[in-house]
Amino acid sequence: MSENELMQAAITQARKSLSEGGIPIGSALARNGELLAVGHNKRVQDDDPVTHAEIDCLRNAGRIGSFRDTVLFSTLMPCYLCSGAVVQFGIPKVIVGESRTFPGGPEFMRSHGVEVIDLDLPECTEMMRQFIAANPGLWDEDIGR
Question: From the candidates 3, 20, 54, 123, which is the catalytic residue?
């Protein structure tokens, strides 16, 4: 799969979360262009404060041995929790849809040798802006405000 197709898999997951009443953030994990797993934010659906999209995706990938040759796609710049998981598992590259609505932890990841690419996709930005405007309390809860 191309990087565009892999990002689209993450966007599909974000839309799925939104359709379930959750926060519209999605993630996908790939190795050599092969989709290994997808996930989406399930904090609301599972009543679980740590089921962020990237964590859900990594859980769905399971025990794949090493993550050192994978790429993580996320519709939103990973927060420090998810950035920590990227560093912990040695994921070398993270491609994100946007960081305008939430800056996340790119500096933390980069300081640990992770390549971080922000595609600044209008589709991802608009999805988050609409959600934040409609659900400010839920968004503040999600980012720990």
Answer: 54
